[in-house]
């Protein structure tokens, strides 16, 4: 059963940022699809929750040098 999550990604400056993050998220085990929108600063990920957790996606975003701001 796939789940979909959406979260904000800050710190992206150009279309290559969002493209490489999209590839990075898409390549994670358990991720079936990932889209990253530079203009809206939104990532949308379809994933198998048995294989990958949102926390790991956030870690991946940070490895790429971007951030996921804490929801308040
Ligand atoms: Mo653009 Mo982003 O020149 O990590 S690739 S700033």
TrEMBL record:
It comes from the Bacteria. Belongs to the cation transport ATPase (P-type) (TC 3.A.3) family. Type IB subfamily. This is Copper-exporting P-type ATPase. The chain holds residues 9 to 80 of 815 of the full protein. It is found in: Cell membrane. Residues 3-69 form the HMA domain. Coiled coil: none annotated.
């Amino acid at each position: 059963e796939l789940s979909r999550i959406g979260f904000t990604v800050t710190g992206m400056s150009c279309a290559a940022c969002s493209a490489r993050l999209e590839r990075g998220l898409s390549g994670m085990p358990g991720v079936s699809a990932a889209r990253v929108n530079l203009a809206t600063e939104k990532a949308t990920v379809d994933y198998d929750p048995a294989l990958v957790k949102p926390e790991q996606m956030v870690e991946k975003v940070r490895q790429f040098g971007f951030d996921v701001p804490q929801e308040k």
